[in-house]
Amino acid sequence: MATPTVPASAPPAAPAPATAAAPASASAPAPASPTAPAPAQTPAQSLPGPALPGPFPGGRVVRLHPVILASIVDSYERRNEGAARVIGTLLGTVDKHSVEVTNCFSVPHNESEDEVAVDMEFAKNMYELHKKVSPNELILGWYATGHDITEHSVLIHEYYSREAPNPIHLTVDTSLQNGRMSIKAYVSTLMGVPGRTMGVMFTPLTVKYAYYDTERIGVDLIMKTCFSPNRVIGLSSDLQQVGGASARIQDALSTVLQYAEDVLSGKVSADNTVGRFLMSLVNQVPKIVPDDFETMLNSNINDLLMVTYLANLTQSQIALNEKLVNL
Amino acid sequence: MDRGIWLAGGRENERRVVLKIIKHYQEEGQGTEVVQGVLLGLVVEDRLEITNCFPFPQHTEDDADFDEVQYQMEMMRSLRHVNIDHLHVGWYQSTYYGSFVTRALLDSQFSYQHAIEESVVLIYDPIKTAQGSLSLKAYRLTPKLMEVCKEKDFSPEALKKGNITFEHMFEEVPIVIKNSHLINVLMWELEKKSAVADKHELLSLASSNHLGKNLQLLMDRVDEMSQDIVKYNTYMRNTSKQQQQKHQYQQRRQQENMQRQSRGEPPLPEEDLSKLFKPPQPPARMDSLLIAGQINTYCQNIKEFTAQNLGKLFMAQALQEYNN
């Protein structure tokens, strides 16, 4: 989306004629269209590369951790009365081709029709505190809830460009436009006729999700609350978990079986790649001589039983010790 | 608040906290050090709701003048600005293979619980979680143990009076995870977008390494325990020997006195027996209680683990039989 402004003043339309060279901007007055950024995108790509400031090409990838999104949604739910949206700082690390966002915190701000005030002192303090715990994290940019980029965003973006080179702007659509919560990331690029006053435009970036292994498991567990009636789940115990995991595999297998049957009965056309995957799947069950397998299985089971016995023995020993000591 | 009702209730724990703890561990404590942080939330009727947390920085050599209290105050003040619950309700810690029953933990939890009655300590086991299932447990000290700690009297008599066994030191509080609707929407989004393959770590059969480590730790603890028992036995023996000696001394005294009386001489003064025979120091019972508690935890972990593995082995057997 194109928001042409000269820095510092909020009133939208005034500088538009000056940047009439960028065709889409003149036709789209600032607060108006929630419609696709597609028409605004084409002029962005027509701009030659060297005119863009900053060392990064437009195809940079942003890798998000789920903890960020959860924090953003949480701060949105706790916003002050009357605030339409929430903003905050993004922290993380920068790589050669990608940016990894690993942490965030929300920053109080006030927004009204003509002005916006962000508590930068607070932001600085919080950043200092966070740095004490993880000194590798840098300020990467900022986030905002809501599905639009307004002129205020440009101002805030400028505040942040003082803190970090080429900051990233992340939007999380909590108002659920189009029935989905869309998550988008942007970086700002200058546009306009070189030599005259430059406008600012937000170019979208690719967003990917990165997980640590343990995070993946945590997220899986939490996803289960989607299915329970009052959004509540408990942590299950050992054998139940094995049961749950095998149930999942069973589901996957039944889908595959269904597909195979459909192909056989001619409902669905056969696909060679899928067929190859199925072959490798079936062949993965190792073919072991039954006797060897029996011995292996038995020895493993014996080991486990012995360990269980020893554990029980130890527990009874210490219980006995307690009784003796307290005599 | 009536204590009985509260202890029966559960604890809620929003997903944000879970993810934050996991992330903190992953980034910081790759070694065997322990990672700690503070839990924030509210107390609602008979439940403790935990809604946020923040991590504590590690203690490093060059941070000698780092003020923990100040860090905490700053954080809480800042969080209040953004309407996050800033009430302290507990703390969390990561653990290595389940070895968390230490004196340090006991002391910290006691000071927390003394200040805030409902506080808990959340123990997060990253290694078990990496194996496929989130391992997060919440513990409090039992009221009996609280009283003993208050007295600061860890002698055997006090413990016997309190009738504390290692099973009654910590009590586990059930955890429940609750999400808001908006977060549910977020989860659906993530599920659609992130095409990361499902990890079936939980069903992997190759987990003997984990079992071996657990057993190693258990053996170490049992060694410590046996040393402790030897010490206790020596103490008992010493006390009984001393009793005997006292007895003998008294008898000799009486005999001598009788002899003197028969000879008409004044009896010898009664000497203070306690000065002559100093009673040996009873060994501290608290440590052995802690060790017993730790052994108990290890044994339970091992049993859970073997139960899971047996299940997996039987499934593998069924698969093989079908094949043949």
From TrEMBL, chain A:
<comment type="function">
    <text>Deubiquitinates activated NOTCH1, promoting its nuclear import, thereby acting as a positive regulator of Notch signaling.</text>
</comment>
<keyword id="KW-0597">Phosphoprotein</keyword>
<dbReference type="InterPro" id="IPR024969">
    <property type="entry name" value="EIF3F/CSN6-like_C"/>
</dbReference>
<feature type="region of interest" description="Disordered">
    <location>
        <begin position="1"/>
        <end position="54"/>
    </location>
</feature>
<comment type="function">
    <text>Component of the eukaryotic translation initiation factor 3 (eIF-3) complex, which is required for several steps in the initiation of protein synthesis. The eIF-3 complex associates with the 40S ribosome and facilitates the recruitment of eIF-1, eIF-1A, eIF-2:GTP:methionyl-tRNAi and eIF-5 to form the 43S pre-initiation complex (43S PIC). The eIF-3 complex stimulates mRNA recruitment to the 43S PIC and scanning of the mRNA for AUG recognition.</text>
</comment>
<dbReference type="GO" id="GO:0031369">
    <property type="term" value="F:translation initiation factor binding"/>
</dbReference>
<feature type="domain" description="MPN">
    <location>
        <begin position="62"/>
        <end position="192"/>
    </location>
</feature>
<dbReference type="GO" id="GO:0101005">
    <property type="term" value="F:deubiquitinase activity"/>
</dbReference>
<comment type="subunit">
    <text>Component of the eukaryotic translation initiation factor 3 (eIF-3) complex, which is composed of 13 subunits: EIF3A, EIF3B, EIF3C, EIF3D, EIF3E, EIF3F, EIF3G, EIF3H, EIF3I, EIF3J, EIF3K, EIF3L and EIF3M. The eIF-3 complex appears to include 3 stable modules: module A is composed of EIF3A, EIF3B, EIF3G and EIF3I; module B is composed of EIF3F, EIF3H, and EIF3M; and module C is composed of EIF3C, EIF3D, EIF3E, EIF3K and EIF3L. EIF3C of module C binds EIF3B of module A and EIF3H of module B, thereby linking the three modules. EIF3J is a labile subunit that binds to the eIF-3 complex via EIF3B.</text>
</comment>
<dbReference type="InterPro" id="IPR027531">
    <property type="entry name" value="eIF3f"/>
</dbReference>
<keyword id="KW-0396">Initiation factor</keyword>
<dbReference type="GO" id="GO:0005852">
    <property type="term" value="C:eukaryotic translation initiation factor 3 complex"/>
</dbReference>
<dbReference type="InterPro" id="IPR037518">
    <property type="entry name" value="MPN"/>
</dbReference>
<feature type="compositionally biased region" description="Low complexity">
    <location>
        <begin position="38"/>
        <end position="49"/>
    </location>
</feature>
<dbReference type="Pfam" id="PF01398">
    <property type="entry name" value="JAB"/>
</dbReference>
<keyword id="KW-0963">Cytoplasm</keyword>
<comment type="similarity">
    <text>Belongs to the eIF-3 subunit F family.</text>
</comment>
<feature type="modified residue" description="Phosphoserine">
    <location>
        <position position="228"/>
    </location>
</feature>
<dbReference type="GO" id="GO:0001732">
    <property type="term" value="P:formation of cytoplasmic translation initiation complex"/>
</dbReference>
<dbReference type="InterPro" id="IPR000555">
    <property type="entry name" value="JAMM/MPN+_dom"/>
</dbReference>
<keyword id="KW-0648">Protein biosynthesis</keyword>
<dbReference type="GO" id="GO:0016282">
    <property type="term" value="C:eukaryotic 43S preinitiation complex"/>
</dbReference>
Automatic annotation (TrEMBL), chain B:
<feature type="modified residue" description="Phosphoserine">
    <location>
        <position position="155"/>
    </location>
</feature>
<dbReference type="GO" id="GO:0003743">
    <property type="term" value="F:translation initiation factor activity"/>
</dbReference>
<protein>
    <recommendedName>
        <fullName>Eukaryotic translation initiation factor 3 subunit H</fullName>
    </recommendedName>
</protein>
<comment type="subunit">
    <text>Component of the eukaryotic translation initiation factor 3 (eIF-3) complex, which is composed of 13 subunits: EIF3A, EIF3B, EIF3C, EIF3D, EIF3E, EIF3F, EIF3G, EIF3H, EIF3I, EIF3J, EIF3K, EIF3L and EIF3M. The eIF-3 complex appears to include 3 stable modules: module A is composed of EIF3A, EIF3B, EIF3G and EIF3I; module B is composed of EIF3F, EIF3H, and EIF3M; and module C is composed of EIF3C, EIF3D, EIF3E, EIF3K and EIF3L. EIF3C of module C binds EIF3B of module A and EIF3H of module B, thereby linking the three modules. EIF3J is a labile subunit that binds to the eIF-3 complex via EIF3B.</text>
</comment>
<keyword id="KW-0396">Initiation factor</keyword>
<feature type="compositionally biased region" description="Low complexity">
    <location>
        <begin position="242"/>
        <end position="261"/>
    </location>
</feature>
<dbReference type="InterPro" id="IPR027524">
    <property type="entry name" value="eIF3h"/>
</dbReference>
<keyword id="KW-0963">Cytoplasm</keyword>
<keyword id="KW-0648">Protein biosynthesis</keyword>
<dbReference type="GO" id="GO:0008237">
    <property type="term" value="F:metallopeptidase activity"/>
</dbReference>
<dbReference type="InterPro" id="IPR000555">
    <property type="entry name" value="JAMM/MPN+_dom"/>
</dbReference>
<comment type="function">
    <text>Component of the eukaryotic translation initiation factor 3 (eIF-3) complex, which is required for several steps in the initiation of protein synthesis. The eIF-3 complex associates with the 40S ribosome and facilitates the recruitment of eIF-1, eIF-1A, eIF-2:GTP:methionyl-tRNAi and eIF-5 to form the 43S pre-initiation complex (43S PIC). The eIF-3 complex stimulates mRNA recruitment to the 43S PIC and scanning of the mRNA for AUG recognition.</text>
</comment>
<keyword id="KW-0597">Phosphoprotein</keyword>
<feature type="region of interest" description="Disordered">
    <location>
        <begin position="239"/>
        <end position="282"/>
    </location>
</feature>
<dbReference type="InterPro" id="IPR037518">
    <property type="entry name" value="MPN"/>
</dbReference>
<dbReference type="Pfam" id="PF01398">
    <property type="entry name" value="JAB"/>
</dbReference>
<dbReference type="InterPro" id="IPR050242">
    <property type="entry name" value="JAMM_MPN+_peptidase_M67A"/>
</dbReference>
<dbReference type="Pfam" id="PF19445">
    <property type="entry name" value="eIF3h_C"/>
</dbReference>
<feature type="domain" description="MPN">
    <location>
        <begin position="11"/>
        <end position="145"/>
    </location>
</feature>
<dbReference type="GO" id="GO:0033290">
    <property type="term" value="C:eukaryotic 48S preinitiation complex"/>
</dbReference>
<dbReference type="GO" id="GO:0005852">
    <property type="term" value="C:eukaryotic translation initiation factor 3 complex"/>
</dbReference>
<dbReference type="InterPro" id="IPR045810">
    <property type="entry name" value="eIF3h_C"/>
</dbReference>
